[in-house]
Amino acid sequence: MTSRARDAHTRVVAALHQSRNGDGGWPYYRGKQSRLEPTAWALLGTTLPVEATPLPAWAAPGGLLVEPSTRQVNYAFNALAALSASAERERAHELTRRIVRALVDARGVVIDSSPVIRQDTTLQGWSWTAGTFTWVEPTAWCMIALKQWAADFGGARLRLDVAERVMRDRACAGGGWNFGNGTVYGQALPAHVPPTAVGVLALQDQANDPLVTAALAHLEQHALLEGSTMALALSVIAVLAVGRSVDALVPALIERCVSAQLTSNIATLGMAACALDAVVRGGRPRGLALPRGASA
Question: What architecture does CATH give domain 2-281?
Answer without folding.
Answer: Alpha/alpha barrel (1.50)
